[in-house]
């Protein structure tokens, strides 16, 4: 064996000393060049490599060259620190490249070498390199190390091979809480909640106690599925084991149970929180709202400090979706006053609430807010504005929004078509439909519902038939129940009841309550009692407690004066707790809503309203008005029937509007009385409103369940076809 000379050893020690003082990569390179010219010492190469990789400005290519110059296979103590540093860098592929160089020069990996390489492989999902590494680990018998096993399991999961990860997991000799958590978390991440919950159950059976991190993962995953069995099992586990719960776990639990509508459980964990953050409070508000417990939702909302946009939007949406539009708009005003700027989502809820309310002045106010907040250019907002104005009776405003839109999509066109149809302007709906096609915008299923709806409400039978046929012939759109329902309605309103029945019988899909209900309503309007009775029976087969069908059967028997049968049906309705929906009409005066039911005497101006009604009836009788008692189908005297007809909710609302305008001399900007009713306007009220518009020279707009009626100069926009 040749020993190094004393001179060479001294030179090497001197260079080692100088290397230890190098502060930059340039200094290292200078000494490296000196080594190559003067000294041959293998230890210097190893030291030089370690120094180059520990420099503040690592040059990977240079470090690899130095590493390759080490003549004997390097030990893991030489390269493990560099592997670790590379795996933490922003270039994980460099770790894989260095690993391949180690293999090339015959470097000896140990159990500490695998973890940084696996970390890098996981980051870039390098499955092939990971599988190769798995084979190396198997050859050198390091797979018995639990950290290495967990690393391979995590690597396969990160590469999307959950089944491979599960195989590694199942073969592990020892599984600690970290291993379980890694496997459960990866299953949750890939949406494999059933598998994650199965692992959770196996973990409990193996006497490993889940920690808070595992519980957070499993709770969050189960919350997304809404599986009540999982929710109940987690609750029982927590209670039985008296699990200590930190803020993160409590937040996950409240969110899960609130999202599933289990508000008693959610409240139990919510009360355990010493500090309640806004996220969990918002989850409670949302949960209570979805369960219809708006008062409880409002309490949590009011208790929340420094409410953010999401919290405000949740409360606004809750009221908008629960048919409390006034309250939704009040909360929106509070939000604006608090300095929170609305976004598209919050304005959507506000627009929806305003559309529900049907007040044109409020619609204009909402539109001005959108303009001020800079959201007017949003396509989705403009589409919603068209719908809002249409439902508030502002057809011209809806058209103006459409024409000013910089871009339009199929929703924009469909919304405006539906607006025209809702207002009985079928010719405008058809013209816009034609213009839409000219501009190469292809109609969709919703577009055809709007066009067919317009045809059915205007008696355009032939046009409706052609448009229905074009769905399949021109656009390859398969008609759905909604489209068949429109055709049944089209024929039914036109008194083509046999054709309507043929549509139902020829449908390729089973008819539902809505379609039979459309036929039933048409039979009632046109006096086709036998077919109406048949339709009502079909409805009751599908929905035995359907109030409309039971009421129609009762009315048919009443028309035939079969009062015993009427009493039997009404007794059945009482036993089943089924009630006919009450007619309710609303009118807004000076920013305040006033609601009326039939024969309502709750209003503080009730005496004045009925006095005004008597005055109006007297004037209308001079113009030829005779109350139509045909819609009163109860066994009472004729005079009582007249009172019942005259006391309909929309008549009371109208008289309230006339009375207060005369008293205060205040009219809306268009001089229009606007009324919203929840049911279809009856024949007598329709005649009554036409005469009032002529005798009192007033324009009256009524939005009933299905459409708008604009009464002016003794005529109605529906042309008596509704």
From TrEMBL:
Native source organism of the sequence: Arabidopsis thaliana
Keyword annotations of the record: Repeat
Chain positions of PPR repeats: 176-210, 277-307, 308-342, 409-443
Assigned protein family: Belongs to the PPR family. PCMP-H subfamily.
Protein name: DYW domain-containing protein
InterPro entries linked: DYW_dom, E_motif, PPR_At4g14850-like_plant, PPR_rpt, TPR-like_helical_dom_sf
Any one GO BP annotation for this protein: RNA modification
Domain DYW: from-to ranges: 624-722
MF GO annotations: RNA binding; zinc ion binding
């Amino acid at each position: 064996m040749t020993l190094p000379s004393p001179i060479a050893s001294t030179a090497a020690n001197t260079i080692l000393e100088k290397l230890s003082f190098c502060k930059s990569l340039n200094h290292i390179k200078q000494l490296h060049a000196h080594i190559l010219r003067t000294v041959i010492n293998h230890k210097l190469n190893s030291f030089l490599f370690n120094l180059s990789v520990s420099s503040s400005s690592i040059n990977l290519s240079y470090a690899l060259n130095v590493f390759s110059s080490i003549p004997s296979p390097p030990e893991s103590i030489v390269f493990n620190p560099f592997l670790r540093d590379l795996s933490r860098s922003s270039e994980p592929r460099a770790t894989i490249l260095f690993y391949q160089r180690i293999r090339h020069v015959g470097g000896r990996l140990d159990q500490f070498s695998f973890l940084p390489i696996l970390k890098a492989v996981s980051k870039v999902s390098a499955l092939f390199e990971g599988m190769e590494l798995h084979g190396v680990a198997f050859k050198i018998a390091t797979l018995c190390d639990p950290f290495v096993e967990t690393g391979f399991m995590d690597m396969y999961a990160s590469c999307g091979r959950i089944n491979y990860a599960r195989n590694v997991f199942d073969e592990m000799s020892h599984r600690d809480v970290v291993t379980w958590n890694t496997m459960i978390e990866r299953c949750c991440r890939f949406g494999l909640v059933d598998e994650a919950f199965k692992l959770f159950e196996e973990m409990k059976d193996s006497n490993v106690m889940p920690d808070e991190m595992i519980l957070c993962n499993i709770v969050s995953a189960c919350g997304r599925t809404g599986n009540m069995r999982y929710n109940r099992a987690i609750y029982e586990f927590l209670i039985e084991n008296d699990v200590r719960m930190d803020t993160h776990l409590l937040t996950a639990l409240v969110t899960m149970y609130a999202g599933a509508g289990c508000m008693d459980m959610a409240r139990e964990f919510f009360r355990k929180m010493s500090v309640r953050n806004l996220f969990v409070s918002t989850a409670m508000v949302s949960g209570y709202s979805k369960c219809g417990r708006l008062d409880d939702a409002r309490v949590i909302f009011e208790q929340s400090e420094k409410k953010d946009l999401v919290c405000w939007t949740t409360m606004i949406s809750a009221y908008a979706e629960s048919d409390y539009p006034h309250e939704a708009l009040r909360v929106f005003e509070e939000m604006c006053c608090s300095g929170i700027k609305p976004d598209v989502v919050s304005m959507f809820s506000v627009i929806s609430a305003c559309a529900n309310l049907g007040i044109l002045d409020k619609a204009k106010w909402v539109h001005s807010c959108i303009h001020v907040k800079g959201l007017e250019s949003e396509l989705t907002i403009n589409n919603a504005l068209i719908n809002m104005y249409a439902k508030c009776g502002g057809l011209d405003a809806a058209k103006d929004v459409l024409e000013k839109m910089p871009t339009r999509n199929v929703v924009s066109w469909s919304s405006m078509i539906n607006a025209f149809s809702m207002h009985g302007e079928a010719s405008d709906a058809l013209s816009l439909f034609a213009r839409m096609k000219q501009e190469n915008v292809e109609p969709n299923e919703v577009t055809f519902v709007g066009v067919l709806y317009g045809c059915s409400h205007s008696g355009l039978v032939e046009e409706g038939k052609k448009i229905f046929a074009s769905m399949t012939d021109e656009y390859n759109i398969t008609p759905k129940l909604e489209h068949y329902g429109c055709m049944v309605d089209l024929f039914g309103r036109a008194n083509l009841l046999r054709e309507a029945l043929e549509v139902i019988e020829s449908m390729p899909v089973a008819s539902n309550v809505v379609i039979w209900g459309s036929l039933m309503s048409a039979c009632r309007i046109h006096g086709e009692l036998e077919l109406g009775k048949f339709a009502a029976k079909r409805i009751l087969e599908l929905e035995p407690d359907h109030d409309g069908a039971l009421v129609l059967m009762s009315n048919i028997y009443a028309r035939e004066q079969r009062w015993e049968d009427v009493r039997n049906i009404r007794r059945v309705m009482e036993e089943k707790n089924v009630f006919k929906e009450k007619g309710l009409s609303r009118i807004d005066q000076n920013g305040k809503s006033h609601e009326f039911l039939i024969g309502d005497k709750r209003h503080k101006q009730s005496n004045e309203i009925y006095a005004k009604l008597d005055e109006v009836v007297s004037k209308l009788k001079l113009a030829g008005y005779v109350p139509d008692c045909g819609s009163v189908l109860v066994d009472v005297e004729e005079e009582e029937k007249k009172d019942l007809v005259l006391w309909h909710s929309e008549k009371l609302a109208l008289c309230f509007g006339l009375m207060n305008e005369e008293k205060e001399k205040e009219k809306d900007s268009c001089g229009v009385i606007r009324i919203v009713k929840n049911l279809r306007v009856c024949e007598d009220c329709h005649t009554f409103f036409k005469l009032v518009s002529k005798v009192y020279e007033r324009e009256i707009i009524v939005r009933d369940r299905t459409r708008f009626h604009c009464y002016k100069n003794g005529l109605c926009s529906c042309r008596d076809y509704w």
